[in-house]
Amino acid sequence: MDGAARVVAGPATGFPATAFEHVKRGNGHHHRRWAVEQLGDVRSQTVWDLYGGIGDTAALLVERGASVVSVDVDEKR
Fold it and tell me: Is 57 exposed, middle or buried (0-12, 13-18, 19+ CB in 10 A)?
């Protein structure tokens, strides 16, 4: 996998340099965390993360005890 390394959750992971990220990285994290909190208790629930990208939201859901099915498509891969 080509790209730059960045910590998503836990160990450093690589992602393509062309992956979408918010211009102001802190804002994306804040909004994602807020949205996950709005779901309430997700322990032992299966949650679908559509347009999952590099897994930032899925990682937050797993931290809260959910089982996550993450779905995304990259036509170039």
Answer: buried
Report d(CA 61, CA 66) in Å as an integer: 6
8 Å CB contact between 8 and 59: yes
The structure's pTM equals: 0.68
Contacts of 49 (CB under 8 A, 6+ apart): 55, 57, 58, 61, 68, 69, 70, 71
Instruction: Compute φ and ψ for 50, nearest 5 degrees.
Output: -80, 145
Contact 29, 56 (CB under 8 A): yes
Number of H helices, E strands in the chain: 2, 4
pLDDT tens, 3-57?
555 555 544 555 566 666 666 767 888 889 999 999 999 999 999 999 888 888 9
